[in-house]
Fold this protein.
Amino acid sequence: MSKRRIAGLFKCLLHPSECRRTKKLLYEYVEGELNEDTERKLEGHLGDCPACLQYVKSYRQIIELTHKHCLPEIPIPPALKQKLREFIEQNPDLK
Ligand SMILES: [Zn+2]
């Protein structure tokens, strides 16, 4: 584990509310549904929090997988969206 990563994780521990907020907004962020202001703040946090960045990466992979299995012109069914939200909520430590 690099020093930078350790420092980031440490920062994360010191600002758990920022991380919690990031994880809550993750879905909207990945789907591009956040307003610019919130998105910029979130990206700022990702910039110095490797733990959250890793979280976003894992989440993106899940999203990409779901997109791959759907026809491009068909949006993700609401039931699946709900399932993804639940998955994220039930795995707060997913990294
Ligand atoms: Zn964080």
